[in-house]
């Protein structure tokens, strides 16, 4: 029975892969819309999406910690992504302490401490297993554009100007912090389970964050986009940032689900 189900699912994945880009986009949009409807039906308070998103991200970090402590290797992990993640988490934690003081602050603190521990292990304890030559995307390529954009587009609240700019910066940086990890995996083609679980968790987390904004915009008939912001651009830019990260992780998530369904331990990416 298991083989038949696996074979049928594998045929389905292969059939989808052979379709034209328009058909793939249609299936993707249909799946996303169905997921959003299901989330809205089961979760009434959309603010809970952010709690769920941060919790899933923390779970992904726990998987990395398990890998580093049991397997004693950091192969397949991008130090650049971990350092970018620590950067936006530190900024967000500072802003959260100044602006919110809620469950998000606690989750961000726990995730930041875990991420710093992962960075320490990669840089010092497990440096011999780190593939530095495959992790060569300069961080300033990502940090500088986010900082410049944050100077012009930020939330319009009663907090200090610096806090608003810093909050915008961490939102933008979070949207693209995973790029070094994705490029790293694209070079290796085969991703071992722990790293794959971690990146998939990031994909789920970003989808939940994006779902909050999309549902809010839908329920307000678009008016929610222009409730706050400098020059009315803040919320549309946030939605765009969330969508960008969800999009760049979607392709990996597809191959992750395919590998899991077929019972494969390693996730295999197609050639570029």
Q: Ranges with pLDDT <50 over ≥5 residues?
A: 1-5
Oligomer: single chain
Number of helices: 10
Estimate what percentage of residues fall within beta strands.
under 5%
> What spatial order of strands do you see in the largest sheet?
1-2
From the N-terminal CA to the C-terminal CA, the straight-line distance is 35 Å
Membrane topology: Multi-pass membrane protein
InterPro entries: ER_ret_rcpt (IPR000133)
Transmembrane segments: 21-43, 103-120, 140-159, 165-184, 196-215
Organism: Centaurea solstitialis (yellow star-thistle)
Question: Which terms summarize this structure?
Answer:
single chain; mainly alpha; globular; disordered N terminus; receptor; transmembrane helix; membrane
Detailed description of the structure:
The chain has 10 helices and 2 strands, in the order H-H-H-H-H-H-H-H-E-H-H-E. A two-stranded antiparallel sheet has the order 1-2. Residues 1-5 have low confidence and may be disordered. It is globular and about 50 Å long. The protein is 74% helix and 1% strand. It comes from Centaurea solstitialis. It is found in: Endoplasmic reticulum membrane. Keywords: Endoplasmic reticulum, ER-Golgi transport, Membrane, Protein transport, Receptor, Transmembrane, Transmembrane helix, Transport. GO terms for molecular function: ER retention sequence binding.
